[in-house]
Amino acid sequence: METQFSWTKQWYPISPLSYLDSNSPNPVTLLGKKLVIWQDNHQQWIVMDDYCPHKLAQLSLGRINEDGNLMCRHHGWTFNNEGQCTNVPMLTGNAKEIACNSLRSHVKTYPTQVLQGLLWIWPDDSATAFEDCQLKNPATIPECDPDKSFMDWHMTEVPVGYTVSVESTFDPSHAQYLHEGSGYYSPETAVPIKEFSLVGEMSADAGFHLKHSGYNLLNQDMEATRNFTPPCANTTIYRYANGKNHIFQLYFVPTKPGQCRHIVKFIIGGNTVKKKSWLSLLPNYLQIGLQHLLSYKVSDQDLTVMHSQEMIETSLNKKWQKAYFMPSPADLGIVTFRKWLDEFAGGAPSWQDNLETTVKNIDNEQLYDRWHRHTKFCPNCRRSVILLDKVQAILQRVSGLLALLTLALIIISIPAKFALFTTILSIISLLGSYFIDNLKQQFFTSIPQGGLPIIKVYADRPSKSLS
């Protein structure tokens, strides 16, 4: 069957603007194609192929020069916001002009636009791409009160694929079991989903629309809708009897086989009052960084299951209809998404550059790595690490100086209480340094720094007595 859905002729949200560096090139991968994002002197975001036509060096390794052009780090070739070569340093006069005007020295650029704090890319390289992109609108958040946003955009790039990522987000009933111990989620509070149905029909470009009832004692009376807008948007709205609405905007951007970029935002309806705490005394970026640390437990649980699912599905070498057993109404979201993929989109993303699509097994260090997953992208988490590093260095110096002072007080026979006081301060400073070091490591990995390198995704349940 011929694919009716074009994977390249679509708008993809590639990154929140807050995650992009306006002073340096930003490398990114989309559908297997390596791209570079940079901002010119007119504050326009430019996206182009991430290689120099000279010797194929990555342009994202370069820099933005004083003229607002992108300069290749390898030999200094420069390119403007249209991808045209503007300088070949090793040529002069007519020879330089000929080389710069040659189509072989140009770099392919792609349409972009900025909406709702996200940079969107149209990754089609056809001659009509800039005209075609005008005919389609990105899948943005429905109109809502921006002041009720529970969080800013949050982005992670996880080592599991597009299909299993999107599939999971149309499977609400897993939360009570997979995320046990987080918030209200618990098997004891789960209730069967009474209604789960497809509203209208599926289509290649419009995707599909689902509605379902609640799945736990707290939300069993709500009405939920989940709207899949191809290629990667899930707009979920929970409507409660008290009039409150919660919007979950989720994007799953296919970067390469076995890897997917998740961009999410939660918008909570009703009056939300933020409680003041001592955390409000910390720099804002550190507050955000600490909030991001709290999200890793849930995402580690997701990654654990999704990666194992991918590996088993690959090893079985069966179509999903044969590999999955789907007897419950709660499974309708999974089935509907898989059917959309098969019927309209060739069963999987259309990877460019002839990528090997076999999912590879990875070890725990890679699966639970936090640096490549989030911290290296997030300016707030990076700044938090830098601050913690400075605080740790100060505490270490203070501890050393206090230890020397204690020794000096003992040598000159100062009363013991003074030496005891400086000793206590030195120990406190040393313990503070140890605490900061452990906190800092949490921005890099979920694997504990001390003891056995075992990820504890769930808290131990008390064993049942044999009586």
UniProtKB/TrEMBL annotation:
Limits of the Rieske domain: 11-121
Pfam families, per the entry: PaO, Rieske
UniProt keyword annotation of Transit peptide present: yes
Origin species: Calothrix parietina FACHB-288
Chief localisation class: membrane
Keywords, ordered alphabetically: 2Fe-2S, Iron, Iron-sulfur, Membrane, Metal-binding, Oxidoreductase, Transit peptide, Transmembrane, Transmembrane helix
Name of this protein: Rieske 2Fe-2S domain-containing protein
PROSITE patterns documented for this protein: RIESKE
PANTHER family: CHOLESTEROL 7-DESATURASE NVD (PTHR21266:SF32), IRON-SULFUR DOMAIN CONTAINING PROTEIN (PTHR21266)
Bilayer-spanning residue ranges: 394-412, 418-436
Coiled coil: none
Subcellular location: Membrane
Keyword Flavoprotein: no
Domain of life: Bacteria
